[in-house]
Write a structure and sequence with these properties.
Length: 169
Protein backbone atom coordinates (compact mmCIF):
# COMPACT_ATOMS: atom_id res chain seq x y z
CA UNK A 1 0.00 0.00 0.00
CA UNK A 2 2.76 2.49 0.91
CA UNK A 3 4.51 1.79 -2.39
CA UNK A 4 1.33 2.46 -4.34
CA UNK A 5 0.70 5.69 -2.45
CA UNK A 6 4.24 6.95 -2.96
CA UNK A 7 3.99 6.11 -6.67
CA UNK A 8 0.76 8.13 -6.92
CA UNK A 9 2.38 11.07 -5.16
CA UNK A 10 5.36 10.89 -7.51
CA UNK A 11 3.08 10.87 -10.55
CA UNK A 12 1.11 13.90 -9.40
CA UNK A 13 3.95 15.86 -7.83
CA UNK A 14 6.39 15.67 -10.68
CA UNK A 15 8.35 18.62 -12.00
CA UNK A 16 7.21 18.22 -15.61
CA UNK A 17 3.57 18.65 -14.59
CA UNK A 18 4.67 21.52 -12.36
CA UNK A 19 6.42 23.19 -15.31
CA UNK A 20 3.24 22.95 -17.36
CA UNK A 21 1.14 24.46 -14.56
CA UNK A 22 3.61 27.27 -13.85
CA UNK A 23 3.69 28.10 -17.58
CA UNK A 24 -0.11 28.32 -17.78
CA UNK A 25 -0.20 30.42 -14.59
CA UNK A 26 2.34 32.89 -16.03
CA UNK A 27 0.44 32.95 -19.31
CA UNK A 28 -2.85 33.70 -17.52
CA UNK A 29 -1.16 36.41 -15.48
CA UNK A 30 0.33 38.25 -18.47
CA UNK A 31 -2.74 37.78 -20.64
CA UNK A 32 -4.91 39.44 -18.00
CA UNK A 33 -2.70 42.48 -17.50
CA UNK A 34 -3.52 45.52 -19.62
CA UNK A 35 0.20 46.15 -20.02
CA UNK A 36 0.92 42.42 -20.59
CA UNK A 37 3.59 42.66 -17.90
CA UNK A 38 5.54 39.65 -16.77
CA UNK A 39 4.61 37.62 -13.71
CA UNK A 40 6.56 38.26 -10.48
CA UNK A 41 8.75 35.24 -9.83
CA UNK A 42 7.58 34.67 -6.22
CA UNK A 43 4.04 33.98 -7.45
CA UNK A 44 5.18 30.81 -9.23
CA UNK A 45 5.86 29.26 -5.85
CA UNK A 46 2.12 29.45 -5.05
CA UNK A 47 1.01 27.49 -8.11
CA UNK A 48 1.74 23.92 -7.05
CA UNK A 49 0.70 24.27 -3.39
CA UNK A 50 -2.64 25.67 -4.57
CA UNK A 51 -3.32 23.30 -7.45
CA UNK A 52 -1.91 20.04 -6.08
CA UNK A 53 -3.75 20.26 -2.77
CA UNK A 54 -7.18 18.64 -2.91
CA UNK A 55 -9.14 21.06 -0.74
CA UNK A 56 -7.75 24.25 -2.25
CA UNK A 57 -8.06 22.85 -5.76
CA UNK A 58 -11.70 21.98 -5.14
CA UNK A 59 -12.37 25.61 -4.21
CA UNK A 60 -10.43 26.91 -7.21
CA UNK A 61 -12.57 24.77 -9.51
CA UNK A 62 -15.80 25.92 -7.89
CA UNK A 63 -14.89 29.63 -7.98
CA UNK A 64 -15.78 31.57 -11.11
CA UNK A 65 -13.02 33.33 -12.99
CA UNK A 66 -14.73 36.66 -12.46
CA UNK A 67 -14.91 36.18 -8.68
CA UNK A 68 -11.19 36.63 -8.19
CA UNK A 69 -8.70 35.70 -5.51
CA UNK A 70 -10.57 37.49 -2.73
CA UNK A 71 -13.73 35.50 -3.47
CA UNK A 72 -11.73 32.28 -3.55
CA UNK A 73 -10.10 33.02 -0.18
CA UNK A 74 -13.44 34.06 1.34
CA UNK A 75 -14.73 30.52 0.83
CA UNK A 76 -12.33 29.32 3.51
CA UNK A 77 -13.52 31.84 6.06
CA UNK A 78 -17.23 31.12 6.08
CA UNK A 79 -18.59 29.58 9.25
CA UNK A 80 -20.38 26.90 7.22
CA UNK A 81 -17.17 25.70 5.55
CA UNK A 82 -15.05 25.46 8.72
CA UNK A 83 -11.95 25.25 6.50
CA UNK A 84 -10.03 28.33 7.63
CA UNK A 85 -7.02 26.23 8.62
CA UNK A 86 -6.60 25.01 5.05
CA UNK A 87 -5.78 28.48 3.79
CA UNK A 88 -3.63 29.23 6.84
CA UNK A 89 -1.59 26.10 6.06
CA UNK A 90 -0.83 27.35 2.54
CA UNK A 91 2.37 29.09 3.62
CA UNK A 92 3.74 25.83 5.08
CA UNK A 93 2.81 23.99 1.87
CA UNK A 94 4.60 26.66 -0.17
CA UNK A 95 7.73 26.12 1.91
CA UNK A 96 7.59 22.33 1.77
CA UNK A 97 6.94 22.32 -1.98
CA UNK A 98 9.61 24.91 -2.75
CA UNK A 99 12.08 22.34 -4.15
CA UNK A 100 9.43 20.90 -6.48
CA UNK A 101 8.36 24.40 -7.55
CA UNK A 102 11.96 25.36 -8.26
CA UNK A 103 12.66 22.17 -10.20
CA UNK A 104 9.47 22.80 -12.19
CA UNK A 105 10.64 26.33 -12.96
CA UNK A 106 13.96 24.96 -14.18
CA UNK A 107 12.19 22.53 -16.51
CA UNK A 108 9.88 25.26 -17.81
CA UNK A 109 12.92 27.44 -18.48
CA UNK A 110 14.97 24.73 -20.19
CA UNK A 111 11.92 23.67 -22.23
CA UNK A 112 11.49 27.28 -23.36
CA UNK A 113 8.02 27.59 -21.88
CA UNK A 114 9.10 30.42 -19.60
CA UNK A 115 11.77 33.09 -19.72
CA UNK A 116 13.21 34.67 -16.60
CA UNK A 117 14.10 38.33 -16.33
CA UNK A 118 16.63 38.26 -13.51
CA UNK A 119 16.94 42.05 -13.44
CA UNK A 120 13.27 42.49 -12.49
CA UNK A 121 12.61 39.10 -10.88
CA UNK A 122 9.83 38.24 -13.30
CA UNK A 123 8.89 35.42 -15.65
CA UNK A 124 6.86 35.40 -18.83
CA UNK A 125 5.55 32.69 -21.08
CA UNK A 126 7.36 32.31 -24.37
CA UNK A 127 4.41 30.68 -26.07
CA UNK A 128 0.67 30.52 -25.75
CA UNK A 129 0.38 27.41 -27.90
CA UNK A 130 -0.56 24.21 -26.14
CA UNK A 131 1.66 21.15 -26.76
CA UNK A 132 0.91 19.27 -29.97
CA UNK A 133 0.84 15.93 -28.22
CA UNK A 134 -2.37 15.02 -26.48
CA UNK A 135 -2.51 15.88 -22.81
CA UNK A 136 -4.28 13.53 -20.46
CA UNK A 137 -7.89 14.46 -19.78
CA UNK A 138 -7.02 14.67 -16.08
CA UNK A 139 -4.35 17.33 -16.72
CA UNK A 140 -6.41 19.70 -18.86
CA UNK A 141 -8.55 20.98 -15.95
CA UNK A 142 -5.37 21.61 -13.95
CA UNK A 143 -3.95 23.75 -16.75
CA UNK A 144 -7.20 25.73 -17.11
CA UNK A 145 -7.31 26.35 -13.37
CA UNK A 146 -3.63 27.36 -13.27
CA UNK A 147 -4.45 29.98 -15.88
CA UNK A 148 -7.49 31.07 -13.83
CA UNK A 149 -5.38 31.60 -10.70
CA UNK A 150 -2.85 33.54 -12.79
CA UNK A 151 -5.67 35.77 -13.98
CA UNK A 152 -6.79 36.34 -10.40
CA UNK A 153 -3.28 37.30 -9.30
CA UNK A 154 -2.81 39.68 -12.22
CA UNK A 155 -5.43 42.01 -10.77
CA UNK A 156 -3.56 42.37 -7.46
CA UNK A 157 -0.20 43.47 -6.10
CA UNK A 158 2.21 41.12 -4.31
CA UNK A 159 1.34 42.57 -0.87
CA UNK A 160 -2.38 42.14 -1.58
CA UNK A 161 -1.87 38.52 -2.66
CA UNK A 162 0.24 37.84 0.42
CA UNK A 163 -2.42 39.31 2.67
CA UNK A 164 -5.32 37.47 1.02
CA UNK A 165 -3.58 34.07 0.98
CA UNK A 166 -1.82 34.52 4.33
CA UNK A 167 1.63 33.87 2.88
CA UNK A 168 4.96 35.69 3.08
CA UNK A 169 7.22 36.24 0.07
Amino acid sequence: MATTLSEEVRQVQNPALGALLEWRFAFGYSKSRLDASACPLPLLFLVLPLLLHEETYRHIVSTRSTTGLRGFAAKFGTSSSNEGDILLALHDRVRSMRPLSFESLQIAYVSRLLAIDILYGTVFSLTSTFPKSQLSESILPLTRNAEKVGTWCAALTLPEIASILKVRF
